């Protein structure tokens, strides 16, 4: 790779890292071409962009991104590294978890999710359990609607009882 190609590559990574609120670093070393192609296909189907990166160039790109603290992610940059970009915070974690049912890798090196940094493969289960933005909004709406439904059902139930009592009293008279 020439100096110009490296500079262009770093510039592209800086743009991607700046735009992404979610990315995962994974170890895909020793995977066969067939397995990597299968992983890429699953990434594409799940709307996850995956690319293999050179560690030193990724580290330089991280240094150039302003306004973001990547914490200890730099310490994970050893060996073969693939970066996965996604709009949904737990989508890459779910994909890796599912993919590892049949394969030993990819291993999670680290993840950056909305300014939170996760390091190590032992964080995979916690990342799988993260709820997406849409799931959280749905839960909040459900929680907000619950008290209103209780009040409405209480009022309609009480109103029906009062109407029934009045009708009974009317019939007796």
The class by helix and strand makeup works out as alpha+beta
Q: Provide the succession of SSEs.
A: HEHEHEHEEHH
Specify the biggest β-sheet. 5 strands, antiparallel
Question: Do you know the CATH topology of the largest domain?
Answer: Alpha-Beta Plaits
CATH architecture of the largest domain: 2-Layer Sandwich
Note the beta-strand portion.
15-25%
Estimate percent helicity: 40-55%
How many beta-strand segments? 5
Q: How is the quaternary structure best described?
A: single chain
Mind explaining what this structure looks like?
With 173 residues, this protein is of the alpha+beta class. The protein contains six helices and five strands, in the order αβαβαβαββαα. It has helices spanning 3-19, 33-45, 55-64, 91-99, 124-129, 133-172, and strands at residues 22-27, 49-53, 81-85, 107-113, 116-119. Strands 2-3-1-4-5 form a five-stranded antiparallel β-sheet. β4 and β5 form a beta hairpin. The radius of gyration is 26 Å and the shape is elongated.
């Amino acid at each position: 790779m020439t100096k110009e190609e490296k500079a262009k590559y770093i510039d592209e990574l800086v743009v991607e890292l700046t735009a992404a609120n979610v990315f995962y670093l994974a170890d895909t070393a020793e995977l066969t071409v067939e397995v990597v192609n299968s992983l890429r296909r699953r990434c594409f189907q799940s709307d996850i962009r995956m690319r293999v990166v050179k560690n030193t160039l990724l580290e330089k790109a991280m240094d150039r991104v302003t306004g973001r603290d990547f914490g200890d992610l730099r310490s994970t940059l050893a060996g073969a590294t693939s970066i996965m970009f996604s709009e949904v915070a737990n989508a890459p974690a779910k994909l890796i978890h599912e993919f590892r049912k049949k394969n030993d890798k990819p291993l999670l090196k680290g993840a950056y999710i909305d300014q939170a940094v996760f390091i190590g493969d032992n964080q995979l289960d916690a990342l799988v359990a993260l709820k997406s933005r849409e799931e959280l909004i749905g839960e909040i709406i459900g929680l907000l609607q619950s008290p209103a439904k209780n009040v409405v059902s209480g009022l309609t139930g009480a109103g029906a009882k009062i109407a029934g009592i009045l009708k009974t009293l009317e019939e007796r008279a």
